[in-house]
Write a structure and sequence with these properties.
D-amino Acid Aminotransferase, Chain A, domain 1, OB fold (Dihydrolipoamide Acetyltransferase, E2P), 2 domains, 6-stranded mixed β-sheet
Length: 349
Amino acid sequence: MLAKRVDALPHEAGWIFEPKWDGFRTLIFRDGDELFIQSRDAKPLDRYFPELAAPLKAQLPARCVLDGEIVIARGETLDFEALQLRLHPAASRAKLLSEQIPASVVFFDLLCEGARDLRDAPFRERRAALTSLLGKAAAPLHVTPATEDLATAEDWFKRFEGAGLDGVMAKQATSVYEPNKRTMLKVKHERDCDCVVAGFRWHKDSEKTAVGSLLLGLHDEAGALQHVGVVASFTAEKRRALVEFLAPYREAALEGHPWRGWAEWDQGQATQRRPGATSRWSQGKDLSWEPLRPELVVEVAYDHMQGGRFRHTAQFRRWRPDKAPRDCDFAQLEVVPPHELAAIFAVGR
């Protein structure tokens, strides 16, 4: 179940608010001795978080499915970078990190208990069942706080940012659980977006020893990957390191690449946004680009969208190895309609 970005918490009655946790979204399945921890893109996470198996089996019902977030809390804040370190291919390294920086799970929904499928039950009912089961659970298992009081939620939004939380979630008390639909709302402290990295440009005068910018894409409603801008806020050291980091994704990158045709089209024939297209603003700049297999996902910060693209260069936040490229779409963006313009042109429309 997904969330839509909005710029303010809803003021109407009937909403339940929760802190927005900054971690790895997870579904956890248990059936007797069988336990499966699944990432948002349906990949297994069990091997990366072996320390969670024992407490989950000890405290969860014998048969259940829960929705939550895997987080790492260090001191008084959440540490997403430490969480990313846990996705290591070596089992020995994963075990060592599980002892050095153990993870926790924060649950916020109960989808199944025993033989009962709760997805069609109202969220208020699912929330009550969750707190009844795990309200007194011991660490590292937790149930997220929730409130129906708007003033409390707004206070959370102001105060929780310093603890590393993303913002506040809003869920309708009567809503059912709808997978792959953006029926929840999220209010975050800054505009950010998860994008597919489908190419890059060399840094000027680097003689191909440093990356200048990463080319970003989002999927439209038809599933096509559209170029939406670039991210270029890197230090000189990071630009050089990106050359080696991106090297594996350059192999056979044009085979089936969604932007392959752009390199072959004449500028006068192109009708779509192209990462290599010149414009009256480029003033002779080299806009040639190197394709990458569209498998990397990056979180970027941006100020606003204009004409389906970032108005200015986006700012790098972090890599998102926990998110599938197909989930990077325009629906996640915050869209703020210009009310003044709507009023001015209302008659003409």
